[in-house]
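Hypothesis: this fold can be encoded by more than one sequence.
Test: take the structure tokens below, design a sequence, compare later.
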């Protein structure tokens, strides 16, 4: 049975004590994430009263925090984003390609989020573009969507990038080059090039003084120690894998919805929380994706949640190739014309699959379907400031 427990409840119950205990190590971004989630959809952020024109239904609606790490604020954002992306879909197979990094790289990334996450995006994009442009493979320009995730099912730090790629490329002479059935690009070639490009960029960042190390990684500040570490990483297998293509544009959108605006853990995975533990559901990928329960100390749960906070201004969803923002409309129009000339007319079933997604309309009365009107506004209130941590 689904629990009504929320991450916000855990932060409200244990967040103040956690902030006091970790005052010297809690950054501005993490503090803002905690505060936003605690206050989301409460009287503290204000709101309004809505009443239906046709029936007696009325309700109070409090404002959302709109923080991108908040589990409650992503649903409506995801719906709007998916509806916008629907116009970008092509009637071709779509592939899901995932790029992961070894644990040693993940640890460096944890200490240098903005720099290493940007390197990860850059290396993934360059890898896909270079291999796809090779005449031995596709021989043209591809387009793809890249999404950064930094967590595993147990909330540990596991940065990786999900890519959604239409199965084909636009050639330099203006032809559409479809990929082979159920095959996109050779995984072992992608893996080796990704490893080389990532490590080259990481070494350049180190040489430029852009990386910072502390704790167990403190020794990597030395150029010789860092060079030795990268040599070891070159001998490791970097995992890249691709899933089978999707069956229809409808499946693509459904799949996208599970990845684009996800946060470290959804409220639906929480089972229970008390003074001593937080229990949540997770899947053990190493044992056949078996469902399991994990219980953590509340402070450890909060720590694991907050390590996935992204730096200010960092974009975790990016578009590349013919799906890049600057050229997407023009390139997609060309590709659609090429596909129409080489493929049979769209069937009724395909038209049904690409029917516009329904959007949640907050102005519709849930009781009678009438129109909800705002009858009063509720101002924000400011709680008394928390006392400073005890340093005695």
């Amino acid at each position: 049975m689904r629990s009504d427990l929320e991450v916000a409840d855990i932060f409200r119950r244990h967040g103040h004590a956690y902030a006091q205990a970790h005052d010297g190590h809690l950054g501005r971004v993490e503090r803002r994430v905690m505060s936003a989630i605690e206050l989301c959809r409460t009287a503290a952020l204000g709101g309004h009263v809505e009443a239906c024109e046709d029936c007696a239904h009325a309700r109070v609606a409090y404002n959302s925090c709109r923080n991108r790490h908040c589990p409650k604020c992503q649903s409506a954002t995801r719906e709007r984003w998916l509806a916008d992306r629907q116009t970008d879909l092509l009637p071709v197979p779509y592939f899901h390609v995932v790029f992961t990094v070894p644990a040693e790289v993940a640890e460096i990334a944890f200490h240098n989020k903005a720099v290493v996450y940007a390197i990860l995006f850059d290396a993934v994009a360059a890898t896909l573009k270079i291999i796809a442009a090779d005449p031995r493979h596709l021989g043209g320009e591809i387009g793809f969507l890249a999404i950064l995730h930094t967590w595993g099912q147990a909330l540990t730090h596991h940065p990786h990038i999900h890519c959604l790629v239409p199965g084909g490329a636009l050639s330099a002479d203006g032809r559409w080059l479809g990929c082979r059935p159920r095959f996109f690009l050779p995984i072992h070639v992608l893996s080796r090039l990704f490893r080389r490009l990532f490590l080259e960029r990481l070494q350049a960042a180190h040489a430029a003084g852009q990386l910072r190390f502390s704790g167990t990684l403190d020794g990597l500040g030395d150029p010789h120690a860092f060079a030795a570490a990268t040599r070891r990483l070159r001998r490791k297998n970097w995992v890249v894998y691709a899933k089978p293509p999707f069956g229809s544009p409808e499946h693509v959108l459904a799949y996208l919805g599970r990845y684009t605006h996800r946060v470290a853990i959804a409220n639906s995975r929480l089972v229970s929380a008390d003074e001593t533990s937080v229990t949540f559901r997770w899947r053990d990928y190493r044992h056949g994706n078996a469902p399991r329960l994990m219980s953590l100390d509340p402070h450890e749960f909060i720590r694991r949640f907050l390590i996935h906070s992204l730096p200010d201004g960092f974009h975790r969803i990016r578009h590349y190739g013919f799906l890049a923002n600057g050229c997407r409309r023009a390139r997609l129009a060309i590709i659609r014309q090429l596909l129409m000339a080489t493929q049979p007319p769209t069937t009724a079933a395909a038209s049904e699959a690409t029917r516009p997604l329904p959007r949640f309309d907050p102005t519709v009365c849930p009781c009678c379907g009438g129109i909800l009107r705002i009858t009063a506004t509720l101002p924000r209130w400011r709680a008394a400031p928390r006392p400073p941590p005890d340093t005695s």
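The first helix runs from residue 7 to 21. The longest strand covers residues 157-166.
Hypothesis status: open.
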